[in-house]
Amino acid sequence: MSDNANGKDNGSESVLRIGSRDSELAMKQTNMVKDALQKKHPHLKFEIVTMKTKGDKILDVALSKIGSKSLFTKELEVALEDNLVDIVVHSLKDLPTTLPEGMVIGAVTEREDPRDAVIMHPKYSECKLATLPKGSVIGTSSLRRGAQLKRKFPDLTFQSVRGNLNTRLRKLDEADDYAALVLAVAGVVRMGWKERISEYLEDDVCMYAVGQGALAVECREGDAATVELLSPLCHLDTTLRTIAERAFMRTLEGGCSAPVAVHSKITEDGELHLKGGVWSLDGKEELVDTKSTSTTADDDEQDSTEPRVKRPKTPPENFCGLVPLRACEYSMSQAYSLGLTLAENLLEKGARKILSDAKAGNAAVS
Ligand code: DPM
């Protein structure tokens, strides 16, 4: 945290400056984090500083085609680096698996439902994807959703739709361009539109994006006071699941330009399960695999003769940007290894070719 670090006169109060995108969803998410922080630190004062990112400005091009990483996060990270804000709030799924030098994720908050959902045009409100008329157009600019859903529903057509959630819902309701949209449940719920959801997509139909539904609070690595201040917001289950997911993504070198998806859970006995997959753009090729590991140190030592997941040769210097949580380093490295090993398994089975073809195909077709 900075106490008048920029020569700003805040009186004797120290103010925590929170950077956020200015879309309605981003502001809702930022206020959720602000409220949670206020609860834990009643004496702190907060100030939200909004800005637009490249992803907010370029609205007429499919996400996957803008082709740059950090589309929704870069400008915020620059503000963080320049000391104009102390923390920034992101959707974890928008945050690349390698952060800029000097930045860390100080907290990953409890995940909202990570699934994707279908929002129907009012005239199809009684339909499911499976019962829509042949050739119906579904709006999504996610290659991940497109590939998986083309595979399941070859008679539907998928088209890019951009803009913030309000704009998209308006495009759906007020025109006849789309029969339905596929969106993350988390965003829809935070916007207060839960009753518009016609169908939740399970993992046998459409697996979700790495980190989907969780919020990440980023700060400067060297700002120990702020790192400490964020620690009560960390949610352990979400943290372990998303480290595994991010390690999977990082090892595959995925991102928005290739169809990569996951499904994860932690059972009561501390077993972390990760299912991960890659697809060709048309969904015709699919590689999916599942792996699990124990996240509790005791279990692992007592009831297994050999660890189920190989430890990485060199332990990750950080956990895809997350700061190590006190006394949880073991679980976190187990989670990291799980994602890494699952990705290596898929790479052995040919994931590299599927992904590079998808990236090339995506760049070629415009
Ligand atoms: C990323 C993708 C999308 C967003 C790609 C993907 C969806 C793109 C689209 C990386 N970021 O998911 O395969 O449909 O045009 C985004 C949303 C949320 C965070 C909106 C959404 C809210 C939910 C959350 C956009 N980023 O996916 O419906 O907290 O995960």
Structural class: alpha/beta
The count of DSSP E runs of length 2 or more, i.e. the number of strands, is 13
* Order of strands across the main sheet: 2-1-3-10-4
Determine the number of helices (DSSP H or I, runs of at least 4 residues). 12
Shape summary: globular
Counting copies of identical and different chains, the oligomeric state is single chain
Uncertain residue ranges: 3-11, 299-304
Largest sheet, in brief, is: 5 strands, mixed
Q: How large a portion of the residues is in β-strands, by DSSP E?
A: 15-25%
Fold and architecture overview:
The chain is globular. It has twelve helices and 13 strands. The strands form three sheets. It has a five-stranded mixed sheet, sandwiched between helices. The protein has a five-stranded mixed sheet with strand order 7-6-8-5-9, sandwiched between helices. Strands 11-12-13 form a three-stranded antiparallel sheet. Helix content is 34%, strand content 21%. The protein has 366 residues and is α/β, with parallel strands linked by helices. The longest helix has 20 residues, at 329-348. The model is unreliable at 3-11 and 299-304 (pLDDT under 50). Ligand DPM binds next to strand 8 and helix 7. Ligand DPM is lined by residues 63, 91, 93-94, 140-142, 144, 183-184, 186-187, 209, 212-213, 256.
Architecture blueprint of SSEs:
Layout: E1 15-21, H1 24-40, E2 45-51, H2 54-57, H3 63-66, H4 74-81, E3 87-91, E4 103-108, E5 116-120, E6 137-139, H5 143-152, E7 157-159, H6 165-173, E8 180-184, H7 185-190, E9 197-201, E10 215-220, H8 224-230, H9 236-252, E11 260-266, E12 271-279, E13 286-294, H10 297-303, H11 329-348, H12 351-364
Parallel strand pairs: 1-2, 1-3, 6-7, 6-8
Antiparallel strand pairs: 3-10, 4-10, 5-8, 5-9, 11-12, 12-13
Helix pairs in contact: 9-11
